Amino acid sequence: SSSSAASRSPLPLAVLQSLPRAQSCSAESESFKMAGRPINSDLRKQMQKAIVKHSDMVAEMRTEVIDTISGCIDKFNGAEGVNFEAATRLIKETLDKQYGFNWHVAIGKGFSFDVTAQNGTLLYGFYQTELAILVFKC
């Protein structure tokens, strides 16, 4: 047991001083310059799509719901960003007309959920890599 205790002890000061130091600020600024490169078209197209994280919908319904979500978010995407309230309302109204009443929609950048939904009506995903979207009927 004494050998395991020795392996957990902190490194001696001489060893710590011999380790390479962090790179200078000029190297960090180079990485920021590289981060400013334009995004290639394939990646840009992928980022514009809705990514479904979980869904129990049939494929046809899921495709139609994703198209509805994409269209509504794009419609209310302005210079100040997405108008979440207007986009959410339009998605709900559209789904209520297409599939009957009691649809619920949540759009945001950081939320968690625990919901009970009708079988075959739950979809959780992301749009434009940062917006989380929850759609379900109960």
3D architecture notes:
By secondary structure, the protein is an alpha+beta fold. The chain has helices at 2-7, 13-18, 25-35, 41-48, 59-75, 84-99, and strands at residues 50-55, 77-78, 81-82, 103-108, 123-127, 131-137. It is built from six helices and six strands, in the order H-H-H-H-E-H-E-E-H-E-E-E. The strands form two sheets. The protein has a four-stranded antiparallel β-sheet. Strand 5 and strand 6 form a beta hairpin.
What would a concise description of this structure say?
This protein is an alpha+beta fold and about 140 residues long.
Query: Uncertain runs with pLDDT below 50, 5 residues or more?
Result: 1-9, 22-34
Q: Strand arrangement, largest sheet?
A: 1-5-6-4
- Counting DSSP E segments of at least 2 residues, the number of strands comes to 6
The radius of gyration over CA amounts to 24 Å
Number of helices: 6
What proportion of the residues form beta strands (DSSP E)? 15-25%
> How far apart are the first and last residues' alpha carbons, in Å?
58 Å
* Shape field: globular
Question: Which range best describes the helical content: under 10%, 10-25%, 25-40%, 40-55%, 55-70% or over 70%?
Answer: 40-55%
Give the overall pLDDT as a whole number: 79
* Biggest sheet descriptor: 4 strands, antiparallel
Q: Spell the H/E element sequence.
A: HHHHEHEEHEEE
Structural class, from helix and strand content? alpha+beta
What are the main properties of this structure?
138 residues, alpha+beta, four-stranded antiparallel beta sheet, two-stranded antiparallel sheet, 6 helices, globular, disordered N terminus
